[in-house]
Amino acid sequence: MYRLYTRAGSGGFVVEAAFELAGVPYERIEVVKGVEPDPEFRKISPLGQVPALVLPDGHAMTESAAMCQLLAERHPYARLSPAAEAPARAHFLRWLTFMSSVMYPAILRYYYAQRYTADPQGVEAVKVAAVCEFERGLGILDATLEGRDWLAGERMSVADVYLLMLAHWHPEAGKLAAAWPNIERACAALREHTVLKQLNASHEMW
Ligand SMILES: N[C@@H](CCC(=O)N[C@@H](CS)C(=O)NCC(=O)O)C(=O)O
Q1: What are phi and psi of 29, to 5 degrees?
Q2: Looking at the 3D structure of the chain, how many domains does it have?
Q3: Which of 84, 102, 190, 202 is most buried, by the most CB atoms less than 10 A from its CB?
Q4: Is any ligand 1 atom within 6 A of the Cβ of residue 104?
Q5: Residue 203 placed within a domain
Q6: How many Å separate Cα 144 from the centre of its chain?
Q7: What CATH number has the domain bearing residue 125?
């Protein structure tokens, strides 16, 4: 069985969503902030970050986007991503990678701002710049969603769930609807998805 190290409200949300949407059983291990995690977790995730995933064959991995892609590949019936040969596949890979490599690190700079400056007086400036960069990403995705329901192709994919998660990490909860209406429209639909709604009961993302 898969074993997922995760935490409520974290990047583990999208990986748990992928498992739930695919109906794949997994063991969920909550990594509590401030509590020393078990030694296995440290070995898998040297940065001490969640999500971290142990595969049924014992191999382990970090990186939320890689986990999403792997689960989509291994459980194709769940249609978590467009098929490998579909034109929408390029968009799926593009936006999933964009979110994990540009937007996720940007918002981490807001929540862990002290790591990104050696100047204690500089923390606020790091936060402001982080939100600015994160919002640049939201603007790009909002434009991408103009006139369309989903980021890649005509069906919801796990990339849309990734966006749902990121969007709800914006420090100003009320800003989404006014500033990025296309993202808000997609998120509003996803918030009503039975599986995601149920998952949110423990994650409290919205
Ligand atoms: N690149 C990683 C980032 C994971 C990450 O930063 N996770 C956060 C929670 S959302 C974390 O565990 N932070 C704790 C820390 O950095 O000390 C991914 O995409 O999975």
Answers
A1: -115, 115
A2: 2
A3: 190
A4: yes
A5: no
A6: 18
A7: 1.20.1050.10
Q: Is residue 199 part of a domain?
A: no
Same domain as 97, residue 179: yes
Residue 39 Cα to ligand 1 midpoint, Å, equals 18
This model's pTM is above 0.85:
yes
Q: Which of 102, 85, 93 has the alpha carbon at shortest distance from 152? A: 93
Tens place of pLDDT per residue across the chain (206 aa):
999 999 999 999 999 999 999 999 999 999 998 887 788 899 999 999 999 999 999 999 999 999 999 999 999 999 999 999 999 999 999 999 999 999 999 999 999 999 999 999 999 999 999 999 999 999 999 999 999 999 999 999 999 999 999 999 999 989 999 999 999 999 999 999 999 999 999 999 99
Distance, C-alpha 126 to centroid of its chain? 22
For atom 9 of ligand 1, which residue has the closest CA?
A: 10
Ligand 1 pocket test target in 30, 50, 69 with most atoms within 8 Å of CB: 50
Last residue of a domain, one of 32, 60, 78: 78
Structural domain containing residue 56 = 2-78
Q: Is the CB of 48 under 6 A from ligand 1?
A: yes
The residue assigned the tokens 């191999």 is 59
